[in-house]
Design goal:
By secondary structure, the protein is mainly α. The chain has helices at about 10-15, 25-35, 45-55, 80-90, 95-100, 100-115, 120-145, 150-185, and strands at about 20-25, 60-65, 70-75. It starts with 7 loop residues before the first helix and ends with a helix.
């Protein structure tokens, strides 16, 4: 397997293929009919991404008979693909993730339970929670320093960003509690 960087679309495809094999057409339908369209529902992006994942040994395509005379290629995640997906899910949340990749954090979380288990999902939430706490503190320090020279519109825009992160922190705390309640209830 090549150690090339996998883009978010690649991880989205691995996550969607992890529970069951699907065709490129099936994947395009998921992307076009859900909020995952932000990653792409274009055949010009999805099919080349599938080819790259297959070339890297992360998925395997197999042509199978479909309805009637139709044949279609179904893609399955390989053990290497599942390992790459789990490694991506389980890596700690960084400041860069918070600044540039909050959408990708949620993508990681969306696949965490099914691909890596409840413990990995909780660990991701706890990592998010810890990083948010230090980030929000740093944002408040920055706000205090900028109040003297930033116009009110700039200050209010910055405060909007802080509040968005506080909302995400509140959600993470709630999600951790929900997970812990379900695990204690035996619905793991």
């Amino acid at each position: 397997m090549s150690e090339k960087k996998i883009p978010a679309l690649g991880y989205a495809l691995l996550g969607l293929l992890q529970p069951q094999p699907q065709s490129g057409y099936d994947l395009r339908k998921i992307f076009s009919s859900t909020s995952m369209k932000t990653y792409s529902d274009s055949p010009g992006a999805i099919y080349p991404a599938l080819q790259r994942l297959e070339k890297q040994g992360l998925i395997r395509g197999k042509v199978e008979n479909g309805v009637g005379l139709r044949r279609r290629q179904l893609f399955r995640v390989t053990p290497a693909g599942l390992s790459a997906l789990r490694k991506w899910i389980e890596r700690p949340v960084t400041r860069g993730d918070l600044v540039w990749g909050q959408q990708e954090i949620m993508l990681r979380f969306a696949f965490a339970h099914s691909a890596a288990g409840a413990d990995a999902a909780i660990a991701l939430l706890r990592s998010l929670e810890a990083e948010l706490k230090t980030y929000i503190s740093a944002l408040y320090e920055e706000l205090d320093k900028m109040k003297e020279f930033v116009p009110i519109s700039g200050r209010l825009a910055f405060e909007c960003g802080i509040r968005g992160n506080e909302c995400l922190l509140s959600w993470a705390d709630s999600a951790i509690a929900d997970y812990e309640n379900e695990i204690k209830g035996g619905t793991r």
